[in-house]
Structures are given as structure tokens and as C-alpha cells.
TrEMBL record:
<comment type="function">
    <text>Catalyzes the reversible phosphorolytic breakdown of the N-glycosidic bond in the beta-(deoxy)ribonucleoside molecules, with the formation of the corresponding free purine bases and pentose-1-phosphate.</text>
</comment>
<feature type="binding site">
    <location>
        <position position="10"/>
    </location>
    <ligand>
        <name>a purine D-ribonucleoside</name>
    </ligand>
</feature>
<dbReference type="GO" id="GO:0006218">
    <property type="term" value="P:uridine catabolic process"/>
</dbReference>
<feature type="site" description="Important for catalytic activity">
    <location>
        <position position="223"/>
    </location>
</feature>
<comment type="similarity">
    <text>Belongs to the PNP/UDP phosphorylase family.</text>
</comment>
<dbReference type="InterPro" id="IPR018016">
    <property type="entry name" value="Nucleoside_phosphorylase_CS"/>
</dbReference>
<feature type="binding site">
    <location>
        <position position="49"/>
    </location>
    <ligand>
        <name>phosphate</name>
    </ligand>
</feature>
<feature type="domain" description="Nucleoside phosphorylase">
    <location>
        <begin position="21"/>
        <end position="225"/>
    </location>
</feature>
<dbReference type="GO" id="GO:0042278">
    <property type="term" value="P:purine nucleoside metabolic process"/>
</dbReference>
<dbReference type="Pfam" id="PF01048">
    <property type="entry name" value="PNP_UDP_1"/>
</dbReference>
<keyword id="KW-0328">Glycosyltransferase</keyword>
<dbReference type="GO" id="GO:0004731">
    <property type="term" value="F:purine-nucleoside phosphorylase activity"/>
</dbReference>
<comment type="subunit">
    <text>Homohexamer; trimer of homodimers.</text>
</comment>
<dbReference type="InterPro" id="IPR004402">
    <property type="entry name" value="DeoD-type"/>
</dbReference>
<feature type="binding site" description="in other chain">
    <location>
        <begin position="185"/>
        <end position="187"/>
    </location>
    <ligand>
        <name>a purine D-ribonucleoside</name>
    </ligand>
</feature>
<protein>
    <recommendedName>
        <fullName>Purine nucleoside phosphorylase DeoD-type</fullName>
        <ecNumber>2.4.2.1</ecNumber>
    </recommendedName>
</protein>
<dbReference type="GO" id="GO:0004850">
    <property type="term" value="F:uridine phosphorylase activity"/>
</dbReference>
Amino acid sequence: MNHAPVPTPHNGAKSGEIAKTVLMPGDPLRAKFIAETYLENPVCFNTVRNMFGYTGTYKGKQISVMGGGMGMPSIGIYSYELYHFYDVDNIIRIGSAGGISDNVHVRDVVIGMGASTNSNFASQYELPGTFAPIASYELLEKAVNAARSQNTNVVVGNILSSDIFYDDNKNSSNLWKKMGVLCVEMEAAALYMNAARAGKNALCILTISDHLYTGESLSAEDRQVSFREMMEIALELA
């Protein structure tokens, strides 16, 4: 296998050092936690910008985990490079989200079947209409089956990938809620679009860390280390 360096300023890995399936939390410290907690013989392949990446094995299968940062521009860069420069086939985003729907609660696991967005990310494709970013069905089906085998209840549906954390429009969440959107995060739509354009696979699995309407929330430490159900579902997709 060719181990020559791959030309990207954002990832220090060489060709062959990243598995076909990559778990991508936003927080690089969560990537480090997953590697050290779940993977056998994890090897760090990236420390550029402290966006840690590791490759190891889980139940005998090779898998990588790497941080993706906050927001669609960040995950847009890292996922594009993994798909196009490192020949990755599957990226599973695992992250936190803010609950919108009355049907989700703090610590619930949500799987994004579709990712609505207020982002302009899709404009680059110059499509004659509105693109609907959706998960790869094969990964979605595997994730639901893995959750059932673990007796983890998951909520599957439409999520919102927002470019805005501090939204000046105080009514925006109410409008998305009326359309049945389950929760809000900031990355999945770009990941789904990059996967579609590359002919690859993507899925977003989330844990509700806070709820916009009930006021419930988890601490930063809980977000980093306590999302075990979500992590263990994602690891089964290797």
C-alpha cells in the first residue's frame, strides 16, 4: 500500500493510516476519549490544529475516529478530505444537539434521517432547486438495528443543521418545530451533502444535551464522556 503523504494542510495522516469508516465527533477530546476507551491499539494519525484522529480496531474491525470541529465549514473541510484524499467510505457524525420537539428529551439518542438547514452550503452545486440532505440508508438501518440489539431507544427523523448558535430571530425554533424537526445541531447537512457529491456514505447520530423549551441541559464534561449509548451504536457500524 502506498504510504506517501497526502497533500492537505489539515490532516497529518499518510495514505493507508485511516480506516474506511470514521466516527466524527465535533470535539477532538471526545475523539481521544473514544479511542482510549473503546479501540484496541489506537494509533494517533493527526494532531494538526489539535484535531485529534486515531485508528484502531473494535471487535476485530478497523475503525478511525477524528474530531470535526464546530459548524459546517469545519466538518465540510475534514469530511471532504477524508472522502476524496483518504478514500474513506463512511463517516458517522456523533455529537450533541439541542432538543426542539416535545418528543425528545435530554440524553435521548436521535438519528438524523434528513438534515434541514439554513446554510448556503448547497449553493456551490448550482442545482436548479432545493437539495434535501439525507443519511445513507444502509448506515441508518444498521444503526437502528444496533440500537435495538443494545435495547437503546432511538428517535429517527428530521434534524436541523444551523449556521447560527446565537440566533437574532427568536421565533426561528418555533417555525422549525411546527415542521416536526426533532433537534438542532450544526454539522450534519454539510456532511450529508459532501457524502452525496462524493458517492460515499454518511450518518448523524446525536444525543440531546439540552432542550430549547424545557431548559434541561448537561455539563460540558457529561457531553464529552457520558454519551456512551450513541458511541456504542456508531462503533457497530465499522
